[in-house]
Amino acid sequence: MDNGKYLLTRSLGSYILRIVGVLTAVMVVTSCGVPIIHRENPFGCGNRSVAIVVEPALLGSIRTMLSQFEADLCTAGYNNVEDATGFADPSALRTYLQGLHGDPNHNLVGAILIGDIPHAYQWVTLHSSNPSIPDSSEEAISFQYYTDLNGTFAKSPTYTSPGGHVYSYDLHSGDTGWEIWVGVLPLYKNDLAQTAVAINRYFAKNHDFRTRQLLRPNIFLQINEHFHATTMQEHNSNMADMRSGTYSWTPYSNAAGARLYFDSPPGGLSVDQGYTDLQNGVADFTVTDTHGFWGASGKLTIATVETSPVRTLFFWSNGCAAGDLDHADNFLTSTLYSPTSDVLIAKGTTNDSGGMGNNSNGFFGHNIATALAAKMAFGDAILGHVNVPLIAPWSSDREFHFGTVVVLGDPTLRRSNDWWEQVSYPSDCASRPQNTVCVQYDDGYIWLVNDSIQSWEKAGSVQAAVGLVARYEHLLGTSSVRLGH
């Protein structure tokens, strides 16, 4: 029986199947005899949408796993609008995203860019508060060009791109806040075949995390290569700063079990102990404070993460330029794609900036951790920090801090894969996406899933629909759900 054609409910211990219709929205267009695809698959999964933009040459090699990923997004309440038509330049892609964002039927919240997608650039400047130190300026890849959809990117009359890039801008004005987040699954080692293998591997571990098969302890790990202690007084001061100081990742850093490392012989600590924890999988969220460049983030190099375990799920690098995608080999991409890596989200920058500044709510690490602790999605946590104005002195360097942020992976993920809040399916189940089923619980709550439901279980206030792929658990009387296996 094709459960994609039925509404499944449970009432008084019995199962009721009601035949309903199926909606599919697939459109194939041709241009000069070449097939190009734009499809909304599925549309109607919830009240938020994600654009999935795929390099056309990759699509055939990742189709099966991409479909599973889109089904997982649907289960999480996201419509996904897939486009593999190919975009000739950054302006064309930005115009496409602007159109989706401007359509109230989509409520676009983010975009995931897969493969060799056009890059825009910004000329950004870091101003020193010390007048004897000159400003530092550089040109870098800017994904802000795609996150700020109603601001203006322009070139001053005398500006010429140092790298010869047509879509490079030194001016950013108007409403400079971000309308959407962007996640990137980039080209790997400048090779399509290796990229396809890496992306399929990524989708597999993403699915395993969502169905609670890929688990790591809910522990925060921070490794700071900048801090050093030669006395216990210095050790205690550094530890206090990392745990609950102005630039700490509270409420993660001061939580029970947090692992905080820096080199401190008198305190018996070293960053090498932290990197051993990283390899042993003791924490799900890892922050590294280091120097960096495209080939390394501190002691971690491309060779290290390609050959040794990286057993954390969320990796935040504050090392400069660790995500410089202008290099076919770059550290952040290897951290996400390596066969030895469990990483689902890797955050870095494309230039010589590591951090994201302080705003009126505080240090960026505190703001991100606070949002994630409230079970917000990673992309929403980033938006929450960016869209509160920076305070001085960071406010004078906004473009330096925000224009060069890069998030690799899937920003719809939450740190916790335990209970999260999701509204009951708001649409008519008769018009739901193809191959999905509306699962209705005893309290009337409906969860749209891509699975075949086999049985029901109930323990106290938790009711579970058991499918072939996962368990779909709902806390009755609330909008809380979670996936099991």
Give the SSE layout.
Elements: E1 6-11, E2 14-19, E3 25-31, E4 34-40, E5 48-54, H1 56-75, E6 78-83, H2 90-102, E7 108-115, E8 121-126, E9 136-141, H3 144-147, E10 152-154, E11 168-169, E12 171-173, E13 181-186, H4 192-210, E14 220-228, H5 232-244, E15 259-263, H6 271-280, E16 285-289, E17 292-293, E18 296-297, E19 300-301, H7 302-307, E20 314-317, H8 331-337, E21 345-349, E22 358-359, E23 362-363, H9 364-373, H10 378-386, H11 398-402, E24 405-409, E25 420-421, E26 437-440, E27 446-449, E28 453-459, E29 462-467, E30 471-475, E31 480-484
Parallel strand pairs: 1-26, 5-6, 5-7, 7-13, 8-11, 14-15, 14-16, 16-20, 20-21
Antiparallel strand pairs: 1-2, 3-4, 4-6, 8-9, 10-12, 17-18, 18-19, 21-24, 22-23, 25-31, 26-27, 28-29, 29-30, 30-31
Report on this structure:
The structure is a single chain. The protein is 24% helix and 31% strand. It is built from eleven helices and 31 strands. Strands 3-4-6-5-7-13 form a six-stranded mixed beta sheet, with helices on both faces. The chain has a six-stranded mixed beta sheet with strand order 15-14-16-20-21-24. It has a five-stranded antiparallel beta sheet with strand order 25-31-30-29-28, with no helix packed on it. Strand 20 (314-317), helix 8 and strand 21 form a beta-alpha-beta unit. The two termini are 22 Å apart. Residues 1-7 and 9-36 have low confidence and may be disordered.
Key traits:
485 residues, alpha/beta, Rossmann fold, six-stranded mixed beta sheet, disordered N terminus
